[in-house]
Write a structure and sequence with these properties.
Residues 1-20 form the signal peptide. There is one protein chain. The protein is mainly beta. The chain is 12% helix and 44% strand. It contains 14 helices and 53 strands. It has a 22-stranded antiparallel barrel. A 5-stranded mixed β-sheet has the order 10-15-16-13-14.
Length: 927
């Protein structure tokens, strides 16, 4: 440490020579708690107009001309103003005490220009460094769920999805997530992987959240909002930081005992001479994932009062393989015996994240940087099925030239899906490998399902010696003879083989896809004063290759290109009290028509620190590559992208029944057979229930939003915010289920074809989940109310509530996507950085009411998510001399196991202790 201190003194000596002829006064300004430099602080010689502003390293200097003694006044947003007396010309270290300046943070994401949050004409929120350090959640990303309008669901221990204003899902493609301007969504699988491959707590500087559409500035991907994460500049944040975290989850979990969680993160950054700086980051996390163990019977063809463990056609939600069913004459519908997810998925998850960056400084405002990120992980992901993404690898490279007026950046994202696989498909594939005929001989996988049902039929009807007739349990046991039991050597061998096998027989998810992106922006305000004028544009190219596992691309990459440009003008009027911003953007995807998206917004200061705002904006979203070209056999169904070329020759759109009509038909036929009717008579009596599907190829979806709001700082202690929005949607992208029988759906007379109806009972059909658009107009609306209060100089309180509502109008409920948002939600937080003698704390309580969850995982049928509340809490202690902070905390303190999405795991408590060492803070004197 002595050597490091001497090195710092030498660095200061180089930066600030001792000669009084160079500078009258030299010094630096630092945060008293974090010991980090305060950039942009104003240092004023009291009683004069002479002032300077601190640079990126927190340093300042005055020219010759003033002699001591004199006083300095130091001020900066978010800090208590400091007054100090100077008696000589030694180097001055000045420490500022932090203070919660309500809503005076500077944000950029809303209008892509710096502005005070309180006067922004659009909805935006910000998580700053103090909030990041004080969050009671295990990491900053999970702490985002405490911000108003933010919805977060956990697909797994190390994978959380973030969304705003409805339509949440396990693989959300409507919400743009940026890390230093880089789109964090893998290009081929299009799974939104949250912060799995993002920055660690040690390297994150701030996070900005835009709820609602931001397509007018950010393009089609920002349909539901933007999350912009900013990492630390090595010029501003040099030094070594280490974080060790250990914890427990699965406490009182019926599926397993308590399990350990472990995380280590390191960051090292600093200058190389006066022009260069670098940073290196590494983090590793490992733990036991949550169990998706909801075994509710969701078989749609069985009446609700007949579902359950005794149902011969039982289809348990988190059991895979039991989706395969058949109607047996004289018996009714029977499903195969499936495998529980916990026996198929790899719940031993981990995250490895590596980052390196090199910066070159032309001057204080112009930088050139190169950044490389490498992330590898095993995570549990939820989409139309549950996937185990094993050793999933994402690599990113970015180069950027930026200044206050412009930036130019280019980046590439490369994904390698590793040994990932579809757990539903795996369960079904294993079920094809062990079936025996009535003589005990193995049968080919192409005959396995039919033979299993033949064995069941024979046993139930008393045609097998030693097996009781008319007994479903006995018939199932006979049909299951030879079944690989979970945990057995044979089961594990087949699981290993099939999870790494491509094609229709295997379950592997393969992707070696790439995304190339270039964009730029220029601020013309200096040329067009007093109008604030900026313009920008981007171009991106997707190159998908999944070897046929996700796309029909065995013959080569699928390439999609798109681009867009925008211009935005802003002006302050009426003595700076009115701020008007207007923009328009044009985007074009090679597979769809171009679209304009205009936006206009304004804020007005009705009284000092009290602002009203209003905005009108439009947006659209081009289907992502998966929605256009996905083609994957998930076993019981095939997921099919909606581009016309993707289904050529498959006769899906032309010759299918709606799934709802097939369900109704199946229930009616099954009931008739149980009541003694023959299969032929039951089909003839109920085939009129079948309806031909009328589904269109996919198009971009569109939105129009009107929003009004208020932000006001009542006094130094109280801040209030209220907002209301209304969204109108057209062409919303949805999943539609269709059933294509082998025979034509209609006969020569135009009536329902009896042969096609029989196909549905004999399993001579294929189910398709297709991406298409809802034909009806629907709307949503919502409101939020927030209050922040400084109870004292040290304790801050906040509370907010949100209301959201989806209006179907006269729409067909089968053609509308899942809103998946609680009607009411409330968050209350309290905390302090230093309530007493270096002790800090934070508590966050969250509540949401119950709602019906819809998703492709359960064939777009509703599953109930009950109302629940959770509490996060942490207490920490700072050891200034040891440059260390220790935090003891809990997420979901009361350990209430709650489902956040239907088919997802129940999430319980996480209890942890974190030790953070930051050498840079310890290099500076305390005061």
């Amino acid at each position: 440490m002595k050597a490091i201190f001497l090195a710092l003194v030498f660095f200061m000596a180089v930066q600030f020579p001792a000669s009084a002829q160079d500078s009258l006064l030299r010094g630096a300004v630092y945060d008293a708690a974090s010991r980090q430099p305060v950039t942009g602080a104003t240092v004023l010689i009291s009683g004069t107009n002479t002032a300077v502003v601190t640079d990126s390293s927190g340093t300042f200097r005055f020219a010759q001309g003033i002699r001591p003694p004199f006083s300095l006044t130091v001020s900066s947003l978010g800090y208590v103003t400091l007054h100090t007396r100077v008696t000589d010309l030694t180097f001055v270290m000045l420490m500022l005490e932090s203070r919660d300046e309500l809503m005076n943070e500077i944000v950029v994401a809303a209008t892509r220009r710096e502005e005070r949050l309180i006067e922004s004409p659009l909805s935006i929120d910000k998580m700053d460094q103090r909030a990041i350090k004080q969050t009671a959640s295990p990491n900053f990303y999970e702490g985002l769920q405490n911000y108003k309008g933010v919805e977060m669901i956990a697909s797994g221990l190390n994978l959380r999805q973030i969304n705003t204003r409805g339509f949440s899902s396990g693989s959300n493609q409507r919400f743009l997530q940026l890390i230093d301007g880089v789109d964090n969504q893998p290009p081929g699988t299009n799974f939104a992987l949250g912060n799995t491959f993002g920055p660690s707590d040690l390297d994150i500087e701030s996070v900005e959240i835009i709820p609602g559409s931001a397509a007018a500035l950010y393009g089609p991907v920002a349909f539901n909002g933007v999350l912009a994460m900013h990492t630390k500049d090595p010029f501003k944040y040099p030094g070594l930081s280490v974080q060790l975290k250990s914890g427990l989850n699965h406490v009182n979990d019926k599926n397993t005992g308590a399990q350990g969680l472990y995380n280590i993160a390191l960051r090292y950054a600093g200058p190389i001479g006066k022009r260069f700086a670098f940073k290196l980051n590494a983090s590793y996390f490992t733990g036991q994932d949550w169990f998706a163990a909801n075994y509710e019977d969701v078989d749609a063809a069985t009446p609700k009062d007949q579902r359950g463990d005794a149902n011969p056609a039982r289809n348990a939600l988190n059991v895979y393989g039991d989706e395969v069913s058949k109607t047996l004459a004289g018996i009714g519908r029977v499903s195969r015996t499936g495998y529980a997810e916990k026996d198929l998925m790899d719940y031993h998850v981990y995250n490895l994240r590596l980052n390196g960056a090199l910066y070159y400084k032309f001057n204080e405002t112009t930088h050139l940087s190169y950044q490389a990120n490498v992330g590898q992980a095993t995570v549990s992901q939820t989409g139309s099925h549950r996937s185990s993404l094993n050793d999933y690898l994402v690599t990113q490279h970015k180069i950027e030239l930026s200044s206050k007026q412009y930036f130019i950046r280019a980046y590439g994202v490369i994904e390698d899906a590793g040994d990932s696989y579809n757990s539903r498909k795996l369960g079904q594939a294993i079920n094809l490998t062990w079936v025996r005929d009535l003589n005990g001989n193995a049968v080919p996988i192409t005959q396995a399902n039919d033979m299993w049902f033949n064995r069941y039929d024979a046993a139930y009807k008393g045609n097998v010696t030693g097996v009781a007739a008319n007994n479903h349990s006995a018939a199932r046991s006979f049909a299951d003879q030879g079944r690989y039991l979970p945990g057995s050597t044979a089961f594990e061998q087949e699981k290993q083989r099939l999870s790494r096998l491509d094609g229709p027989e295997g379950a592997r998810i393969f992707s070696e896809s790439k995304l190339y992106h270039a964009e730029g922006q220029y601020d013309f305000s200096q040329l067009f004063r007093p109008v604030q004028l900026i313009a920008g544009g981007n171009f991106r190219s997707y190159h998908m290759f999944t070897n046929g596992s996700l796309f029909d691309d065995k013959d080569g990459d699928i390439v999609i290109r798109e681009g867009g440009a925008f211009v935005q003008a802003g002006k302050h009027l009426f003595r700076e009290r009115l701020n008007i911003v207007a923009s328009i953007r044009y985007d074009k995807n090679q597979n769809f028509k171009g679209r304009f998206t205009p936006r206009v917004a304004a804020s007005y200061e009705v009284a000092k620190q009290h602002f009203l705002r209003a905005s009108f904006q439009t947006g659209f979203r081009s289907p992502v590559p998966a929605e256009q070209f996905y083609k994957s056999n998930a076993g019981a169904f095939t997921v099919l992208g909606g581009a016309p070329a993707n289904s050529k020759g498959m006769n899906v759109y032309e010759n299918s029944y709606t799934l709802t009509s097939v369900d109704s038909f199946g229930v009616a036929v099954n009931r008739a057979i149980q009541q003694g009717s023959t299969t032929e008579a039951a089909v003839a009596a109920n085939k009129a229930r079948l309806q031909q599907a009328n589904v269109k190829y996919i198009e971009p979806e569109r939105i129009r939003t009107v929003e009004v709001g208020y932000r006001g700082q009542v006094n130094d202690q109280l801040f209030l915010e209220a907002s209301y929005y209304h969204n109108d949607y057209t062409n919303f992208i949805i999943n539609s289920r269709m059933v294509r029988p082998d025979a034509p759906v209609k006969d020569a007379t135009g009536a329902i074809n009896t042969d096609a109806a029989m196909n549905l009972l004999t399993r001579n059909y294929q189910v398709f989940v297709v991406f298409t658009n809802g034909s009806d107009k629907v709307s949503s609306q919502g409101a939020s109310l927030e209050a922040r209060y400084l109870l004292s100089d040290k304790i801050h309180l906040s509370a907010h509530g949100t209301w959201a509502e989806f209006n179907m109008r006269n729409a067909n409920p089968n053609n509308i996507p899942a809103f998946n948002t609680p009607r009411f939600r409330m968050v209350v937080t309290a905390g302090s950085e230093n309530i007493w003698n270096n002790v800090g704390f934070n508590v966050a309580w969250r509540w949401q009411d119950g709602f019906d969850w819809y998703g492709s995982f359960n064939d777009n049928r509703p599953g109930r998510i009950g109302a629940y509340s959770t509490m996060d809490a942490q207490v920490n202690y700072q050891f200034p001399k040891a440059m260390t902070n220790i935090k003891l905390g809990a997420s979901n303190l009361l350990n209430y196991y709650a489902y956040q999405g239907y088919g997802l795991p129940a999430i319980g408590g996480v209890y942890y202790v974190t030790l953070t060492f930051d050498s840079f803070r310890g290099l500076l004197p305390k005061g």
